[in-house]
Amino acid sequence: MQLRYNYRAYPTPGQQIELARAFGCARVVFNDGLRLRRQAREAGEKYVSDGELSRRLITEAKATPERAWLGEVSAVVLQQALADLNTAYRNFFASVTGKRKGRKVALPRFRSRKDNRQAIRFTKNARFKVLDNSRLRLPKIGDLAVRWSRTLPSDPSSVTIIKDAAGRYFASFVVQTKDEPLPETDSEVGIDLGLTHFAVLSDGTKVTAPKFLRRAARKLKRLQQDLSRKQKGSANRKKAVVKVARAHARVVDTRRDWQHKLSTTIIRENQAVYVEDLCVTGLSRTRLAKSVHDAGWASFTAMLECKAARYGRTFARVDRFFPSTRMCSDCGRINNKMALNVRSWDCPCGSHHDRDVNAAINVRAAGQADLNARGAHVRPASVPAAHREAGTHPDAARSTRSVEGISVL
Ligand SMILES: [Zn+2]
Fold first, then answer.
1. Residue ranges covered by each domain of the chain
2. Which residues are catalytic?
3. Where is the Cas12f1-like TNB domain (predicted)?
């Protein structure tokens, strides 16, 4: 599996100038490629191939006076900029023809000097190197100081140097890692991602975003309000923009660290993890948008999925149309819809339910039932050993046939 390892980098003022030059050259080559393909399309000519793009915009362009300065940066950086463009086109075509699922992908856009994120990529061909003195050697840039917050597990295949909106630099390495299956455990968990709590687990655990994260989010909100009151084009506005960018970066970093810890714990303690597929893009169009984005569920479930694959656990999403909230986890009866402020309820069968814990138990049952129903004929190698409770647990009796709309994506 490929994993990313990110570290802060601290280029000297001289190296920052070289990096700015490389960001600029990569941007120009990317935009030249986009322009050439657009012109070819408008003129009714055939699609300019990847090879021809590289020959005309890098090799031949360097020989012209207008683009001679491209020779001042690593050729790999320029080739990787075109590789990004080619990937963007391929994603667009795959999306148009329906080969790529999910949200529609638009045609690539021109890159700007004002973009919040500037990035260049070095591959092995560029011969970047982590030196014995722990600096990162980049061709035509120099030896960068990097804060190695954790060790790289093996030789990286590429490194991307990023400058974010807050003016910080990062070195992001792609590393090929081996799977490290954890010892098997019996417990399985369903997770309900809610609004009152960040997550509620089927074992009754309720996870709330920690105070320091909420405090950072409140500070960001205040700075954003300050910014909105500043006059356009004023020096004070510029200062406020930087403050917001810094506060935003802090919230994002803090949330990511916290989610990493939480997802690692859940994956370690459970053999299988089931979550409701919330289709966050659909939800976020409603008035719940703000809380949805703040909560960052999409990144959290992505972490769970990635870690499950790495540590030999099962991860599955349960269809979002499945009525997990109003179905009684004891008798299976589907009750009436409930307002958001109803936190607990009673089923006619006599069971008393905490709204979110009940939903999490249902998510777990739905995930288990579906894996059991499909397990026999769907890629047996990737399905875990038979579930301990299969056949005896009342939940397992609810297969996909008895409850509509359950599916593991
Ligand atoms: Zn009931």
1. 2-176, 188-397
2. 192, 276, 356
3. 297-363
